[in-house]
Amino acid sequence: MQGYFDADYSGPAFELFGTGHLLFLGALVAVILFLFRGRRTWNDDARRRGRLGLAAAIVIVELSWHAWALSQGIWSLQLSLPLHACSVGLWTSVYILLTRNYRAYEIIFFIGIAGATQALLTPNAGDYGLPHFRAVQTMTSHSLLVIAMIWMTVIEGLRPTWKSIWRTMVAANLYMVFVTAVNVLLGSNYMYTLAKPPEASIIDVMGPWPWYIFYAEFLALALFTLLYLPFALADRQADRRVADTA
What we know:
- This protein is an all-alpha fold and about 250 residues long.
- It contains seven helices and no strands.
C-alpha cells in the first residue's frame, strides 16, 4: 500500500475510462440520482447536517492533498496554490455550504459543475493511476464539487438565472486576468493561461496559445447555457401552465 502514496510512483498511469474511472463516475451519478429522489424528504436539521458534512469532506480532501504534497517534497508556489478554477470552486463551495450565499452560488454553480465535469472526464492525475492517492483525491475532490452544487440546487432550492450566466462570465474573466498576473510573477501556469496543460484535455483541439483562451470563452458560454437549459425549460412549462389556467 505504501507505493500508492509515493510521489515517485512506478505503477500504471491513469486509465481513461478504465474500470476504476467508470466506477467513480457511476458512483457520482448514483449520488446525484439519490439527491433528486430524496429531495423532498430532508428536513431543516438534516439539510444543515448534510451541508456541514459536505463542507467538512471538501476541506479534508483538499487539505489531504496539500499534506501529501508537502510530505513528498513536491509542494511549490508554482504548482500547489489553490488558484485553478476547480480549486477556487471547491473552497468557495465550502463558504456556500456554510452560508447559503446566493451570489457566490450562482457563479460557482456554472464554473464548478462545468469545470469539475471536464476534470472528471479527463482527470489531471498524470502518471498516478487508481488506486493511487493522487488519482483518488483528484476524482473525489471534483466529485464533491459537483455534489455540493447539486445539493445547493436540489436540496436547498437555490437556482441560477439568465443573468447568472453573464455574471459568471464577467467574474471568470476578471479572475483570469488576476491569475495571469500571478503566473507572470511566479513563473506558474494556473488555469493554463500561459500554456496548454501537459496532459491531454479539450484544450488540445482549440489551437495554439493564445487562441485556445479565445475559443474557451465561447465553449464556457455554451456550457453555461447548456447547464441553464433545464431551468429555462422548467420556467417555460410553468408559464404554459399559468396560461392554461388563466
